[in-house]
Amino acid sequence: MDLDLDKVKQTFIGEARELLEAMEEALLGIEGEVDQGESINAMFRAVHTIKGSAGLFGLDPVVRFSHTVESVMDRVRGHQVTLGPALVGLLLECHDHLEGLVASSLEGGEETPESREMGQKLVSGLVPYLEGNGTSEPVPAPVATRTRESGGGWAECWHISIRFGENVLRNGMDPLSFVRYLATLGRIVHLTSLLERIPAGEAYDPESCYLGLEMDVETAADRQAIEDVFEFVREDSRIKFLPPHSKVEEYIAFIKAMPALWPKAGTATPRGVVDFHATAWISRG
Amino acid sequence: MLTYQTTQHDGQPSLRLAGALTIYTAAQARNEIPSRLTEHGATVLDLSGVEELDTAGVQLLFWLKREMARNGPGLTLVGHSPVVVEVLDLLKLAGTFGDPILLAS
Predict the structure, then answer these.
(1) Is the ipTM of this complex over 0.90?
(2) Nearest CB to B23; choose among A38, A169, A211
(3) Cβ(A29)–Cβ(A39) below 8 Å
(4) Which of B2, B93, B96 to mutate to test the interface with A (most CBs of A within 10 A)?
(5) What span, in angstroms and rounded, lies between the C-alpha atoms of A236 and A167?
(6) What is the pLDDT of residues A70-121, one digit of tens each?
(7) Which residue of A18, A73, B33, B72 pairs with A44 in a disulfide if CB–CB is 3.0 to 4.6 A?
(8) Contact predicate B13/B40, CB 8 Å
């Protein structure tokens, strides 16, 4: 049903807007801060989450662009790159471009030539921060991989994106138990909780579930074992699993080759959009 | 079961919660906490008596903080009990909430 898909898209727009606002706020305030840690984390979280959500909707341009921004933010977080005025300015431009990408992606259709050109220009500006110290010539193509120096082998990780369904708590389940159980299957290398879907004011229902999670889990467990963890919430929630060692190109090729995996409007159930499928994802290692 | 106690924290009026902040008490808490805070002019929520905390409870705390930040002086969470610390750590929410967490010795 188109109505359900629209509602779900609206949720994404709302969430993305709040995150972009947080990112912009952090960027604008950061130069005056003595301890930039909190703001840097907020910015990383924002881009990381937008990327995850965009993946759930198959919004390739958003995923690709936010991946590059996220990679730079990760280096800033790891103190491999300093956040000076030039980079802040560039990131603000990236923020604006992301805003545009989010807005236009949902209208469907291909990215405009102007947008693509802007994206490439921004990526060229970002690439020197990825390869260190601006010693390399900027390249126009988006960066597909990057190395991660500290342990944690993200290449070995499954990325799990979840937006729990509204009725999960009412149905007697708790996301906390899923996280705890997942931790017994392997090591949760990275976890971001998303509470942005909690409505303001009266619209908030204390018994509804608004939680989302973006996780990277290092595990030797197979796909089935990981999927089984979420068996009871699958129907009500939007979940996406991305196997380790996936790259941008694989992601896109996989999507194109498997149109049957994408949610069809007609599969929406009264309890929510059934949106469970596994696809290749961008690796971070 | 969730009970309330008006008390002081560092000389500030505060509301201390005791018991369970979960799906079973969230609706009641959502109705009672804002008015109790206002009634006592409290901007501090003391969590030292919280013995159970689930996702519903976490959402409520987030909602309370955000509402009070939007409409006034804000809300500070203090006295995080071990249960509260464990849950916030599991969900990596300490930074998002932004309250200093003092570990009891």
Answers:
(1) yes
(2) A169
(3) yes
(4) B96
(5) 7
(6) 989 988 888 888 888 889 999 999 999 999 988 887 676 677 888 888 998 9
(7) A73
(8) yes
